[in-house]
Amino acid sequence: MDYEIYEGRTEGQNRLKRYLVFPYTEKQDTRWLIDTKKAASRFFKVSFGHICVGVGYVLKDELYIDYMPRGSKRVVIAYYA
Question: Which of 2, 39, 46, 67 has its CA 20 to 30 A from that of 75?
């Protein structure tokens, strides 16, 4: 699967946080979700259950998770939790 890597910092302790960003399509099924979690678990080198998958937004090479800016593109994000 194709993905991009975005990095950020946590607010409280200023630790490095990495997000894998996958393209979003309207016709996503369960198999696609399983493949996304497998790719993320291989990247982070953790078990399948430690990967969280959600929706994010990308605008001008900036990743937004809780906020949808006008004109942004919807993506699927996977991260270690």
Answer: 46
